[in-house]
Amino acid sequence: MSETPIRRASSAPARLAPEPAIPAIDAGERAALLEGQHANPHQVLGAHAAQMGGVSGAVVRVLQPAAADCAVVVH
Length: 75
Description:
The chain is an alpha+beta fold. The chain has one helix at about 25-35, and strands spanning about 5, 15-20, 45-50, 55-60.
């Protein structure tokens, strides 16, 4: 697995982050979401079942351009 350095504004040493396990959404869908033109944004955004490496779980995508942080609360 290759790793990508995280860029930080602070003087703290950079740490390495693993590549995302879930593939990014299609560039065309991303552009449509950002422009407010996506025909069905709930098809991409929100919680969706996912399976990676034989492990079932969920992927959660949100569009909050002004957010400084985001969290998923699991009960």
